[in-house]
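> example.struct
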């Protein structure tokens, strides 16, 4: 809980002085509590919530100017290097890194929930074969609430914990099922002898016809991609989960709402959009033309994978992702990947171009993740699904934090600019 500060902010409006209390967190900007403004006849106005703190949280801290990302205080660079995805899931949910026994218990808790009800197959088979896997994931995750009526009491801590385990455990299974269905291949069941990322890759690429050995380098890269996407403060999809959760809706529907928000190309859909953009550019000789388009106010084209609402310096995740990219391409013997070469040239040009420098548009996490995913054989339409698997612990940890804390129904107000009151006009007089 943020500490009330002895400092106050004073607002002078129409000659009146309004005193507003302030709060101080452990890091980052102090906040001004504006809730009392309604009583003075005013609302604040902040479309896109650029300067609005919607809640207080202990999960993740971002310093956009310094390129800092901490999960419960641990720098993302250290977690990416020394930890793994399930350990970060535990950290986000519990606030501390697990000891050996706690880690083993958590891994086992997750393993016990990787299967989905057999009826989920029929749900997925109800989609057209060419359905986007995000459409499948969004729909099926919401439908999971229909399979767990007996443990949806959000006031019950045990139900909340089990739901967290179920969502983290089942997301890769559902993702792999959406991929298999699209390809007309049989679903592959999860295996409890495999690690989390290994299991996902096995369910995605194995067939019943022969043994499938997961490449350990690819599994490590996949685990790191999940880890780098685990949480990111109050981003659009996490804020969607919190807003849905503030109504008391069940956690499966809240996470499904987060999946829907993540799908957009300005958010989690950017990794897919980066690869589509590079395909559209087609060749390094066209890069200058597209950079000019990105700078043209009248042209809707933007360089996908560049820019960020918070990071006004390099996204620390992009640096780690770039390193992973080189490791994977080298391990797979595809150092001279034309897509990577074009991405690196685009990045170099963008980082030297005044337009991008002045607007502080740097590569974000999505810029390189798509290239790594392409290199390990994940089809473009699955990229945002991978992002959703990674972001699930963040979504559910924020939901947990909100439900376990001071939850008020989220209900923003507006600046009304419509017509003033007027009387109905019968159709014969219009
Ligand atoms: C993610 O919030 C999170 O934490 C998100 C995320 C997470 O982990 O959850 O980090 C994941 O979503 C990363 C972002 C992925 N999206 C993209 O890569 C899409 C391309 N980026 C842009 O759409 C944009 O940068 C946003 C949406 C990400 C951020 O936009 P903002 O903060 O709303 O800033 P803006 O759109 O107002 O842009 C500021 C200026 C504008 O020019 P002016 O109006 O000031 O003249 O920069 C320009 C924009 O035109 N600009 C770009 C650009 N991004 C912004 N110009 C060209 N190419 C771009 N990519």
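> example.seq
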């Amino acid at each position: 809980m943020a500490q009330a500060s002895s400092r106050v902010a004073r607002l002078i409006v129409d000659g009146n002085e309004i005193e507003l209390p302030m709060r101080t967190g452990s890091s980052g900007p102090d906040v001004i509590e504006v809730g009392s403004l309604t009583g003075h006849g005013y609302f604040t106005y902040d479309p896109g919530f650029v300067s609005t703190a919607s809640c207080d949280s202990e999960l993740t801290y971002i310093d956009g100017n310094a390129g800092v990302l901490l999960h419960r205080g641990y720098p993302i660079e250290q977690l990416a290097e020394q930890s793994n995805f399930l350990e970060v899931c535990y950290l986000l949910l519990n606030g501390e890194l697990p000891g050996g026994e706690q880690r083993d218990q958590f891994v086992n808790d997750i393993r016990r929930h990787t299967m989905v009800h057999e009826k989920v197959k029929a749900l997925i088979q109800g989609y057209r074969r060419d359905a986007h896997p995000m459409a499948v994931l969004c729909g099926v995750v919401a439908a999971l609430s229909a399979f767990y009526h007996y443990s949806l009491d959000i006031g019950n801590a045990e139900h909340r914990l089990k739901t967290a385990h179920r969502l983290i455990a089942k997301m890769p299974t559902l993702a792999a099922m959406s991929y298999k269905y699209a390809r007309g291949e049989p679903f592959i069941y999860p295996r409890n002898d495999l690690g989390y990322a290994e299991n996902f890759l096995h369910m995605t690429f194995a067939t019943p016809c022969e043994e499938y050995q997961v490449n350990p380098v690819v599994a490590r890269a996949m685990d790191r991609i999940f880890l780098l996407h685990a949480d990111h403060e109050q981003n659009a999809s996490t804020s969607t989960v919190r807003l849905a959760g503030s109504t008391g809706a069940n956690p499966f529907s809240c996470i499904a709402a987060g999946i829907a928000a993540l799908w957009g190309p300005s958010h989690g859909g950017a990794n897919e959009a980066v690869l589509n953009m590079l395909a559209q550019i087609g060749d390094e000789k066209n890069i200058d033309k597209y950079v000019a388009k990105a700078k043209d106010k009248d042209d809707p084209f933007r360089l996908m994978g560049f820019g960020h609402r918070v990071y006004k310096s390099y996204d620390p995740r992009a640096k780690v992702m770039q390193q992973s990219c080189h490791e994977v391409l080298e391990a797979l013997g595809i150092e001279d990947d034309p897509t990577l070469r074009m991405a690196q040239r685009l990045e170099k040009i963008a980082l030297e171009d005044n337009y991008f420098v002045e607007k502080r548009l740097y590569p974000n996490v999505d810029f390189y993740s798509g290239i790594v995913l392409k290199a390990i054989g994940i089809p473009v339409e699955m990229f945002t699904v991978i992002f959703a698997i990674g972001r699930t612990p963040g979504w559910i940890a924020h939901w947990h934090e909100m439900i376990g804390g001071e939850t008020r129904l989220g209900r923003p107000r507006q600046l009304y600019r419509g017509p003033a009151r007027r009387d109905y006009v019968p159709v014969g007089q219009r």
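> remarks
Residues 157-183 form the longest helix (27 residues).
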